[in-house]
Amino acid sequence: MAKNITPRKEDYSKWYLDVIAAGQLADYAPVKGCMVIRPTGFAIWEAMQARLDRMFKETGHVNASFPLLIPQHFMEREAEHVEGFSPECAVVTHGGGKKLEEPLVIRPTSETVVGHMYSQWIQSYRDLPVLINQWCNVLRWEMRTRLFLRTSEFLWQEGHTAHETAEEAQEETLRMLEIYRKFQEEYLAIPVYTGLKSAAEKFPGALATYSIEAMMQDGKALQSGTSHNLGQNFAKAFEIDYLDRDNNQQLVWTTSWGVSTRMIGGLIMTHSDDDGLIIPPKIAPIQIAIVPIFNNEQERKETLEFANSIAVQLYEKIDKLQIKIDTRENLRPADKFFHWIQQGVPVRIEVGPRDVKKQSAMVARRDIREKNAVSLENITQHVVELLDKIQDNLFQRALDYRKANTRTAKNYEEFKEIIANEGGFVFAHWDGSKEVEAQIKQETKATIRCIPLEKSEAGKCMVSGEPSAQEVLFAIAY
To answer: What per-residue confidence (pLDDT) applies to 320?
Structure first.
């Protein structure tokens, strides 16, 4: 067990922060609530960004960049939006040594400035749909912060689209939700539930908000991505209208959707252990670390040459592989091994003088800490299969944990007992009222994470006894 990491069972919050420190992922910035993402942490974000960006472009989206500063009156044009975000806004009142004529809001999100620009760009149905994404930073003045999960400034992507019809906008909303689900499950190896947020939990100014919800190792939920059908609310506020196919003036239908560096927090809390970070191979910035072991210059030369030959062989057979050969001379082999364990690298290959003579290497997998001797002629096939096994195992392990910690409550007393003593996810019937939702949150701290897209049977609300269309997903969340 790592001496620099608090065990999960002892203090889960401290464990999380210790894993970040040990993995050199991030640190606290001089400004309260902000963070510095260190090179290893940023490499994980870049890997996420690259794969998601490709998925967006495959569905016809293009990237653009909108300004960081937003005129204050823009934020006030959509009433629900300004009410929802005003407590979190940071406002610039001076620039160039002078007081500004109008204060500028540092973007908490970009629907308003995007809406303004779309009103300039969209004139006819021929200009639609508009499918734009941007990668940027945003600022929300958070009171209680935690690295990656909730910081005042964070990195994210935000997609903004405009459509001719309500049906097209709804299609887009669910299409992007599915891309998020696929990315989380196939790349991050994190199983998620997809569903509709309750009216109390939806994005300010949206017609409907959908989310993906993941379970962390402490049983809490993490909202890992959202997709919003904005209806015509922002189109009305910013007069985004166009001439339709019958020469009539119409308002567009818009959507927005986003995921952020919060995904790194989710990755840590889903897979990592008491020795440090574990990263699924498909998203790992480095899939393989090769560690030459030597005692003198001759052994150093031989093991480095052998390590390089293994790397070349792997590069030839595995597409887009990232390999790091550890050539550091100021650390013992055991310290090198532990460094790569804490960095979460999926596969470690150890090469010593004896291995060179045998034309083999020791191959270790990070997820279950298993190590095997593999001959040089079989090593490529072994590593290819091993990376797939690790990816699949991490997903299955997370899925098994979620299944073991997901329950159904038949009545409110049972629900309260599960939340208090077991935690995890709870499916239960709810009558759809804000009053009951607020009561449950106040009494148990559990919130409705989503109303699942896969509907269950109708029943009666566990609190009021009123009719309920389907079970909804409850949990205590980050």
So the answer is: 82
